[in-house]
Amino acid sequence: MRISNFLKTLFLFILSFGLIHFCFSQEKIEKESRIRSSEVPEPAKEWLCDSFEELKRVRWFLESSQNGISYEAKFHYKGDYHSVEFNSSGIVEDVEIEIRQSRVPKEVWNEISSYFDAEFDQVKIEKIQIQFSGSISDLEDFFDENDREGILSRYEIVFQGKSSSWGLWEALFDSTGKFISKIKVKIRPNDNLVF
Amino acid sequence: MKVILVLIIYLIITNATAQENQTFFTGIFPEVSLTKKISDVNKLNFKIENQRVLFDNRDKENPQFTHYRTDLMMFFDHSVRPGVSMALGIFHRFQENENSNRIIQQFAVLQRMRNLRINHRIRTDQTFTRNDDLELRMRYRISGEIPLQGKIVDPKEFYLVISEELIFSYKGGDFEIENRVALALGKLYNSREKLEWGVDYRTDGFIQDGFRTRLWGKISYFYNF
User: Fold this and answer.
1) Which residues between 85 and 124 in chain A have a beta carbon less than 8 angstroms from any beta carbon of chain B?
2) In terms of residue numbers, what domain contains B104?
3) Which of A20, A86, A184, B58 is most buried, most CB within 10 Å of its CB?
4) What is the pLDDT of residues B27-38, one digit of tens each?
């Protein structure tokens, strides 16, 4: 009988906890949400059309944080997955393209590998993105006419690395493969999937 | 993978053509899961689940609010590498005349994709019930988490969780199969807390007599600290 009362109380507790949290959850948030093309500033859409001919399916996201808002376009183009980031006015900031390791020039990969060898016992690459930044017109010329003038390229690599224990990292390397910086990537709790 | 797919299709067909006098009961299933991080790679999970029957086609008095089971469990989870973990668990079940204890071994792999997370979970467990045979089970669960507002689930956003689990059991010389399908709508309140509302549909008795289906309305609260 006592356990029955306890369980009834627990059940009501769970329900009420949910309701309370609708009202009182407070946390600084950085979030992205899917938006319609019509909600995106015109300069961003125009730049995308000029730089990537015959682009078909683009998914737009609004990213908001304490630093403000930005827009991101994600799409497949010529077989590669692209992410293009625009500021709040719709001005392009950078373009990231997912690539395979085989497409990183050999001498660049050797430089990147030497960093991994020095810092980690084992490394497993999860994702490689080449990142292009520059002025609006330089970026447009680069994607439209392959003109590299004024373009800064870098490699962003997400990898699992083992030193004392395994960790997940996102590292930035310059165009020659020299290490710039790295941050630890935290996997969002997956207790609902695991237990 | 193909074998598992064929087996799931077989179970669904068997379910659809099952005899009419099958056992069916339905009810509510609240659960609370608390996960304590004890180091970068180790954590403890405490979970309590309670099942209450609201309708049972074998009973004359319906609706009812009958206690069916309460399960308490604790896991020690060790991350082998990012997204891959092994866990050991202990479990106690309160059930009328069938209180039992269980030990659980678990291996889980999380696949992170652009806008989807898929988790594979393999479990073996051994259940000890007084005056009853030891039950040995092997379980495989695949579950997917789909963000509903963007490409990843951010605080204050909703998501869907879909899962399918096959359970093979051996007890007293008999084999049995159980199938569990669950669908839930979740909300991530902040980086520590989430709440899920869903349905959990369980079928068993495929091999031995007594085909049975159970449908649970589930509400689950998850807290990480």
Assistant:
1) 124
2) 27-224
3) A86
4) 999 999 999 999
